[in-house]
Amino acid sequence: MIEYLPRSKQHTELYLTQFGVEECIPSHFFGPAIRSHFLLHYILGGEGIFEVDGKRYRLQKGQGFLIYPDVITYYQADSVNPWSYCWFGFEGTLAELLLKQAGLTRESPILTYDKDDKIYNYLKLMAETNGNGNHKARETRMTGLLYLLLSVLAEYGPVTPTEQRESRAEIYVEKVKEFVETNFAQKITIEDIARIVGLNRSYLCSLFKQQMNTSIQEYLIRMRIHKACEMMQNVELSIGDISRSVGYNDPLLFSKMFKRVKGTSPKHYRTENVE
């Protein structure tokens, strides 16, 4: 079974190009050749070999291999115990990043997942979406299933070298920055942030100060003012609209914080910087 899919126009970050399953005959092979997209094979049974960049891997049930776009690869089923596998072809601006989160790169193209049948079940669910009569709905559902598949691989995949190099302090600080950037418009407090990150408030503030050379409160204020400056490009928004949109229900407090950061009032800033 194999299905080829058209290029997605609504899911440019990640989308399927094909998927399928095959029970190979003994010594069945493909390549050496290149592919134009990412292609992830997952072995359902049997064994075989995969060759890329001068390396040979012998693989079996519960393992898989990633083919990078425009990279020459070769793979062959075993002559005695040929493998069967399912595969997923995909592209998108987030594809490589999501694969890296799962520990899959050109240098580390082998995956191991032998916990359950989730990967194969995702393929079956993709196939079952056919025939619902709504192409856009099917495309979105299949993209969602692809995200779920990659999330499983990320959850149980190896720790990447990048993650190993990061100190725990850097990880916590990054969580604070991500939370602030996502929730700057809400009435968030340092206690809220500490609870989400999972650290004592005083300890988290100390870590953040050491890493960023500024306090969490000051980082939040500057993030809000930065976003406010971006919003000022939209002339349909009043200063009050912008104030509320960045977490300040009191326009006077907003003006005070804005002037402290930018050295001028919001109104004067807009006059000088927005055409």
Automatic annotation (TrEMBL):
Name of the protein in its database record: AraC-type DNA-binding protein
Source organism phylogeny: Bacteria, Bacillati, Bacillota, Bacilli, Bacillales
Domain HTH araC/xylS-type: 174-272
Species annotation: Paenibacillus catalpae
Keyword Endoplasmic reticulum: no
Domain of life of the source: Bacteria
Keywords, sorted A to Z: DNA-binding, Transcription, Transcription regulation
GO molecular-function term, one example from the UniProt record: DNA-binding transcription factor activity
SUPFAM superfamilies, per the entry: Homeodomain-like, Regulatory protein AraC
InterPro entries attached to this UniProt entry: AraC-bd, Homeodomain-like_sf, HTH-like, HTH_AraC, HTH_AraC-typ_CS, Tscrpt_reg_AraC-type_HTH
